[in-house]
Amino acid sequence: MAIHTDDLISCPARITLDAAQLAFFNELPVDAPSVQTELSCELEQGHEGSHAALGQQADTTMWWIQWTLSASEINPFTWCPVKQQPGVPDRDDLECTLFAGHSGKHSSTRRSWHSEEAA
């Protein structure tokens, strides 16, 4: 599979993390920027299922906050395996920056939403 370059609109949903969620992210053993208290959904507009935003990355695990109108939770995921240009060693702007198994279309680090195509 490859990432296609037609721009789409991202989901406008936002979440404000509570004190327990912020404490969880801040206790992860990782040298990373401070966690933002308000996050935007990183999936494409009109996606199915819960909203999702990357909270923190620790080694190869990405901790994503997922939420609906009634609940939220933090879940560990790995990177989505879809690549824009197979065989290129640098992940910047070349691979989907979402989690494996995400709903909807794929995204590059430019936050443009892309449709999936066969490689």
UniProtKB/TrEMBL annotation:
Domain of life, source organism: Bacteria
Protein's name according to its UniProt entry: Uncharacterized protein
Protein source organism: Winogradskya humida
